Structures are given as structure tokens and as C-alpha cells.
Amino acid sequence: xxxxxxxxxxxxxxxxxxxxxxxxxxxxxxxxxxxxxxxxxxxxxxxxxxxxxxxxxxxxxxxxxxxxxxxxxxxxxxxxxxxxxxxxxxxxxxxxxxxxxxxxxxxxxxxxxxxxxxxxxxxxxxxxxxxxxxxxxxxxxxxxxxxxxxxxxxxxxxxxxxxxxxxxxxxxxxxxxxxxxxxxxxxxxxxxxxxxxxxxxxxxxxxxxxxxxxxxxxxxxxxxxxxxxxxxxxxxxxxxxxxxxxxxxxxxxxxxxxxxxxxxxxxxxxxxxxxxxxxxxxxxxxxxxxxxxxxxxxxxxxxxxxxxxxxxxxxxxxxxxxxxxxxxxxxxxxx
Length: 335
Description:
Oligomer: single chain
CATH class: Mainly Beta
CATH topology: Neuraminidase
């Protein structure tokens, strides 16, 4: 039986804190996230906090703070360095909004040997591509980069690239996983098979991609409704995805889609699903609501998972919930 052992708020400053990742490095726990005035705002920056005991946390740096909105930071730990990657978004005309507005994307990386002193952020991979879901397998870095050439437009489906690096800084293309993908994370099993959990670029579906080495031929499987920010994990031989659940009102003639429409989104949760028989089976919800999700995961020696995420369930929000503050949380769960 899946259970939540405990949940605690680990960062709150009245700003919108979001999009977490989580690593254990040299015996210390690190969580990174975006710190900004709202869900989308030009001053966003990547912040890192650290703890020795999972209770007391302190801010240890701002690894990526460019002139753009620095978003969705991800972390990778090697034996001697901690890497932070963040997508830096700029808009040539910041006064314009909507799906037709051009946004220029460039991923930046900073690293540290002690988790406190950070290198200057440097651009990595290609302009127009967002390096997401970065990890390390057998001394090699892998990541999922989504975007278009030479720049991405809001609302336009984007290609998803599997990329690799020997040092975490110089990245090369391995293959195109799909031409309709965005946020994605991966895991590699004991047989060296790579599995990639994908938020669809058209915001409609959640897809699982599978490939054997050298990871150039992909088999895609549809798992139903979209799961934003999918984090793919394995526990006791079972595969789980953790991400944002859209809680919908009743469908039917009164809703915009007419009969059969799933209903409007009335709230959101950070949730866990088990992947089995081509289905995503709901397992549990973390305490969450409003603008929420984007989980980082660290497996402990006893098999429990530590999960970082963000949520607004303890703050007062209005109709445009994404304009209000959000806090960072840490949960210990058993699946």
C-alpha cells in the first residue's frame, strides 16, 4: 500500500517558487528551483538550497541568473561536481503575449565543487532547445532537449532530442525521440533499455518512448491524457510517473466541448501513477493544489522516495492562481 510518511515545507519567501529538482551530493541534500514574482515573469532565476538533515535548509547560491527568465532548473551530481541546468527565456518584445509571440530559448549550465561557489553560467547545446530531464548513466550524461530551429513559438509542437555529453557541458545529438514532445525525463533499466516519459508538445497526450542502445530507434506508446512535468522512476521493479494531475469538473452539455467533454480544469494536484498494461493507474496525491508539480526524486537506502515539489495549497490565491506565491515542499513516500 502506497503511503505518504511525511511532508514539510522547506522554502517560502512570498515569491512564486517552482519547478524543482533534487540531488544528494557529497552527503548533503540539494534542491534547486525557479524563484520569481509569478509563474512567468522576466526576473526568474535558478536558486539552490541545501540541508544536512532534511529539516533545516539554507540558500547556497543562485547558479543561473541571466538577463532572461531562467526556468525549470535540473541538477546532476557527479563524484566531484554538482551541475545546474536552466532554460533562459527572452522575448524580443516583452509587451506582447499569446501563442504567436516569439520566445528565444537558450539553456545555461553552472557547476560547483562545494555546492556554494558556482561557475559563471554558460550556454549549452543549441539555441532554441530546452535541455530538460538531465541524468547520468555509466559516467555519461544524457538529457532530453525540446525545441525548434532556430526558435520556439508558444503553443507550437516541438521536437524532442536525446542528447549526450561526456563532461556535462558539450552536448551532441543522439537521436530525435519524437517530433511532438516537450518536458521529458528518462531512466535506464538493468538491460540498458532507455525509457522516456514525455509531455506531448501539443499538450494532449502522455507518451512513453523505449529504445535499446545506441538509442536511435524509438517505440512510442500512448498512455492517455497529458501529464505535465513527468518524472519517471522505478521502485521494486515497478515503473511510476510523478507529475501534475488536472482535476476536472463534470463533463457534458454544459461544458465547452459538449457531450463527452472531460470538463474544465478546476484544480491541480501533484500525483503519482503506476504504469502497467498500457495504462497510467493513479496511486496517490501529494498535499498540493493550484500551481503545482515538477518533482525531483531521490531514492533512499530503505527504498523510500524523497520528493521535492512546489504547490500553492497553503497560500491564498485568486482566479489567476499562477500570479500568486508558491512554496517548495519535500515529501517522503513509499510506493
